[in-house]
């Protein structure tokens, strides 16, 4: 009797297996053939760059160096080009700049170019290249702390310079912060003095400018910091005090 029940159980099991549908073979994905692994899906974080995207480049200008621009203590902080463009560069890199660029050299300057005005235009230089020697200098932070003000100004002495206007000096924001006289001497003052100076020179463009104060003469030029003394345009004395005002109009 027991053997008969076992035979019935085996027959029932075989009948169940016969009616269960077989699993269909998985169809390979599109683009893949049987026996090959499907291509991996693209990563969601992988950037896609179009081959037709235009290359980005910083604006650049080319010109011939007329003279160095100086800080009130006589450090080189840029270049004046023959066309009147002021190229401003950090003074802590002035020594490196004069090692690759001299007056009369042609330079290629890349950086931030301010809109041209009736006073000229300025460039905040990022890179200055001397194409004749293929040497260049790039703006970068100082590697050592700057010297204290009393030490930087140790070579300054009382001076007086005078002459007619050759060119306004603009900082990298396009504000007047100095003058270059026809003899090459430079007068420095804070940007808020630029507007009164420009107004006085608009009325007397050929007037003699006289600046007295502490200054420096070195191999790079002569500069006087007018804020430490006085500044006159013709017979008009320029006030050197007061709060900074708006920049001069273009």
List descriptors:
disordered C terminus, OB fold (Dihydrolipoamide Acetyltransferase, E2P), globular, single chain, 250 residues, 7-stranded mixed β-sheet, 5-stranded mixed beta barrel, alpha+beta
| Total number of strands | 13
What does the largest sheet look like? 7 strands, mixed
**Mean pLDDT reading:** 82
**CATH C-level class of the domain at 149-237:** Mainly Beta
- Approximately how much helix is present in the residues? 10-25%
Give the percentage of residues in beta strands: 35-45%
SSE succession = HEEEHEEEHEEEEHEEE
CATH architecture of the domain at 149-237: Beta Barrel
Shape: globular
CATH topology of the domain at 149-237: OB fold (Dihydrolipoamide Acetyltransferase, E2P)
Unreliably modeled segments:
19-35, 37-57, 243-250
The number of helical segments is 4
Layout of strands and helices, then pairs:
Elements (H helix, E strand, L loop, with lengths): L1 H18 L40 E11 L5 E6 L3 E4 L5 H7 L5 E8 L7 E10 L4 E4 L10 H4 L4 E7 L1 E6 L5 E6 L4 E3 L5 H10 L5 E10 L2 E13 L2 E2 L13
Parallel strand pairs: 3-5, 10-12
Antiparallel strand pairs: 1-2, 1-4, 2-3, 4-5, 5-6, 7-11, 8-9, 9-10, 11-12, 12-13
